[in-house]
Amino acid sequence: MTERLDTVVIGAGQAGLAAGAYLARYGREFVIFDAHARIGESWRRRWDSLLLFTPAAISGLPGLPFPAPPRAFPGKEQMADYLQTYAETFNLPVRLDTCVRELTRRDGRFLLDLEDGSLEADSVIVATGALRAPRRPAFADELDSAIQQFTVADYRNSTQVAPGPVLVVGAGNSGVEIATELAATHLVWLAGRHPGHFPFNPTGPVFWRLAHHLLTVDSPAGRWLHAATNDKGTPVIRSSPRKLAKAGIERLPRVEGHSHGLPLLADGRTLRPAAIVWATGFGPEYDWINLPAFDQSGTPRHTRGVSVIPGLYFVGLPFQYSFTSELGCGVGRDAEYVVRHITGHVGSEVTV
């Protein structure tokens, strides 16, 4: 017999847990599925020295402040532990080790194909994260096999990396952090366009309050920033060109291809690195959703997380509503909006 539920949340990261907290508050019958064996596992699998790019003051989810000094940048293990605590605090019905292989729609209800059966739901919140598949250029497979290659998802620490020069491709936050770590033990080249950097330390509450309330898709400034970050990437948080130079990191133009098995720069030079770290971002991974819910680039078509497909919702998308949509403070607001839409409480607010 097929199990039937009001709502299914797919993904037990910060977006899915925030949505679950609001669903529970509104008395909705729901379950949260996650493919991992424990909550927070996606954080634990990232590189060892990773710190959040936002301070603890704005990294907590609704109803439970992050347990760290407000201006501190928590580590990945702290974040993973916090998510576990959040699920336990609100007694959220999380089913781990549960992979949704396909999501379809039939007779007005959603059908979820699981590894051990199927389930039907009136509504589905996709909270798996929009950027899950690490990107690297197609020509990476044509490079000399003697060159080690890592994506941001593969890299853990400098001990993995062979002696010799390391080329980090991508100068956003992840690329800059990894390049700085590697510079302590390797000669490092950092290739890619500089996306800009914050000229101040963004740990204070005033900046984030302004970003949360003013930089939204409803404001001209927010729409401009959304377009700018889509084009250039998010400004670097904890570094600057001066700090990179002080660490001994050499900045290079973009990598545009290969020549005789070596990476080719935009200025025509080739490099012979011992290893390459591709910090070239992540792409969407929605091939398991068999619904016409996406544009040609694979991006969900939505308004504040409400999909063009009735009953389908998204939480945790970059700039879903504001610059803070991927942060604890922003994802909570987005989750509440989506849940109020599901439960017919649009226009009202509830406190978790």
TrEMBL record:
Give one Pfam hit by family name: Pyr_redox_3
Instruction: State the organism named in the record.
Output: Streptomyces humicola
InterPro entries given in the database record: Auxin_biosynth/cation_transpt (IPR050982), FAD/NAD-bd_sf (IPR036188)
Name this protein carries in UniProt: NAD(P)/FAD-dependent oxidoreductase
Membrane-crossing segments per the record: none
Q: Which keywords belong to this entry?
A: Oxidoreductase
Q: Which SUPFAM superfamilies match?
A: FAD/NAD(P)-binding domain (SSF51905)
